[in-house]
């Protein structure tokens, strides 16, 4: 049923956007977590989105193709979370408790401006998926009153 | 003369179904608004509805005599009607979903769905009052 499908699709969208919001929150919270060792410093994390493809080919080969199977993809998925490899910031702070022998600490490569725009974009997209789900709900509720 | 549901309900039943199908395609576009290289898709409503009309060629299929044969089925399979949208302002990550256009189309589609539903519902009410006869 196509209408029931919408709930799944909007659900995957909301899931992906909330995960993106989650990484943004994590990045912003750790924006000032300095460390002396270059390996232990927090690095900015970004989710990778990809469209979920339906198994259209497999169905064709099985010979039992569904008549209404025209939706080529069904929602969005998060393939994984990657750590950004932009260079870390090295600052001279001899008074910092974690400073190395030469007085330097490394700061995370979190770009606060980028993260703020990410946050706005993620919350807007989330909102949009909620609206899609709401109108799909209205459509289903209306269909349930058929013939009354 | 027997009443056939096919002729009593007319095109509205197919229209309602295609509207539901299109809503899920548009919802998919909106869900993938931040996916790099995703191409927005849509179906040509008029063309699809045209194919829903019962015709002689509807059951034109190939014979399958061996289990390794691939069934071709109807000439119109689902995927061929799914078209790609041409973006007005292409974005740098290869994504062609445009928020405002998809949103407008989704809302228009939801309203058209309600309209089709209203037509279908009044057909049913007409049948009901014909059966009751009062």
Written account of the structure:
With 148 residues, chain A is of the alpha+beta class. Chain A has three helices and four strands; from the N terminus they run αβαβββα. Chain A has helices at residues 2-29, 56-62, 112-144, and strands spanning 45-53, 73-83, 89-92, 104-107. Chain A has a two-stranded antiparallel sheet with strand order 1-2. A two-stranded antiparallel sheet of chain A has the order 3-4. In chain A, helix 1 (2-29) packs antiparallel against helix 3. Chain B has helices at residues 5-9, 12-31, 45-52, 99-132; strands at residues 41-43, 82-84. Chain B has 134 residues and is mostly helical. The two termini of chain B are 20 Å apart. Chain A binds chain B through residues 1-3, 5-6, 9-10, 12-13, 16-17, 20, 49-51, 56, 60-61, 63, 65-76, 121-122, 125, 128-129, 132, 135-136, 138-139, 142-143, 145-147, and chain B through 16-17, 20-21, 23-25, 27-28, 30-36, 38, 41, 43, 64, 69-71, 73-74, 77-79, 81-82, 99, 103, 106-107, 110, 113-114, 117, 120-121, 124-125, 128.
Quick description:
Chain A is an alpha+beta fold.
Chart the SSEs and their pairings.
The complex is a heterodimer of chains A (148) and B (134).
Chain A: H1 2-29, E1 45-53, H2 56-62, E2 73-83, E3 89-92, E4 104-107, H3 112-144
Antiparallel strand pairs in A: 1-2, 3-4
Helix pairs in contact in A: 1-3
Chain B: H1 5-9, H2 12-31, E1 41-43, H3 45-52, E2 82-84, H4 99-132
Antiparallel strand pairs in B: 1-2
Helix pairs in contact in B: 2-3, 2-4
Attribute tags:
heterodimer, A: 148 residues, alpha+beta, two-stranded antiparallel sheet, 46% helix, elongated, B: 134 residues, mainly alpha, two-stranded antiparallel ribbon, 2 strands, 50% helix
């Amino acid at each position: 049923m196509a209408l029931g499908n919408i709930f799944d699709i909007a659900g995957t969208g909301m899931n992906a956007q909330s995960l993106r919001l989650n990484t943004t929150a994590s990045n912003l919270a750790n924006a000032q977590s300095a460390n002396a060792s270059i390996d232990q410093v927090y690095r900015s994390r970004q989710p990778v989105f990809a469209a979920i493809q339906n198994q259209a080919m497999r169905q064709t080969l099985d010979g039992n193709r569904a008549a209404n199977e025209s939706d080529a993809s069904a929602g969005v998925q998060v393939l994984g979370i990657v750590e950004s490899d932009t260079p870390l910031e090295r600052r001279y702070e001899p008074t910092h408790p974690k400073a190395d022998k030469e007085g330097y600490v490394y700061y995370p490569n979190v770009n606060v401006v980028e993260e703020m725009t990410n946050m706005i974009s993620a919350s807007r997209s989330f909102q949009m998926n909620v609206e899609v789900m709401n109108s799909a709900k209205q459509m289903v509720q209306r269909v349930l009153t058929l013939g009354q | 003369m027997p009443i056939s549901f096919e002729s009593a309900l007319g095109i509205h039943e197919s229209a309602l179904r295609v509207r539901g199908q299109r809503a899920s395609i548009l919802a998919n576009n909106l869900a993938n608004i931040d996916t790099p290289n995703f191409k927005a898709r849509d179906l040509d409503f008029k063309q699809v509805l045209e194919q829903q009309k019962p015709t002689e060629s509807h059951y034109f299929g190939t014979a399958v005599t061996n289990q390794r044969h691939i069934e071709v089925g109807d000439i119109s399979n689902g995927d061929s009607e799914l078209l790609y949208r041409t973006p007005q302002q292409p974005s740098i990550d290869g994504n062609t979903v445009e928020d405002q256009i998809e949103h407008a189309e989704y809302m228009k589609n939801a309203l058209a769905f309600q309209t089709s539903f209203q037509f279908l519902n009044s057909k049913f009410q007409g049948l009901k009052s014909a059966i009751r006869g009062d």
